[in-house]
């Protein structure tokens, strides 16, 4: 947990998470409620001691304030160029820029007709494979877009990884976060769980217990359902 959020921080408190009632479990999901601008960062090399993987997936569970628009996660190179950005809001952009400056900003994949900041809980996953990025929303494949990156794309690990708003953003955001455990990868070749209950087929890690990163793409997603 290199980017470690604690409820003792100013503007951070605990709240009920996505599921307050699960089958065969008395545990209640807990979430971090972030009510003020907060920005945590760490050298990217601490998260990725080796090269940043070419194909990867990011997963999180989030409830954002209605109308919010912000970057939950950003990775910068040592020159301050944002290489990767996970945006929350209406028609979110998947920001990705390799070492050759590809794709250009006007070609960033945009997931239109969707609002990730509607005041409701959402399970969100992005999977990057080859020259394609796919958004999974609430455990269902939502959209795939072309990712016009180079043939051998590189993302530098010489900069910093930031949880919170982008370095130049001044907008305050409010968001509740749930730990990503309970989201499973059931890709037929492995049939392994991504939670701590089993061994992951990919190199997986939690960033601040809030965002899961995996090397490789996603197979099918199976999510535990809440009891209404």
From TrEMBL:
**Top-level division of the source organism's lineage:** Eukaryota
Which Gene3D superfamilies does this UniProt record tie to the protein? 2.60.120.200
Q: Where is the Thrombospondin-like N-terminal domain?
A: 1-186
Q: Which UniProt keywords apply?
A: Repeat, Signal
Q: Name the InterPro entries on file.
A: ConA-like_dom_sf, Laminin_G, TSPN-like_N
Q: Which Pfam families match?
A: Laminin_G_2
| This protein's name | Collagen alpha-1(XI) chain-like
The question of whether Signal is a record keyword is answered with yes
- Where, if anywhere, are coiled coils annotated? none
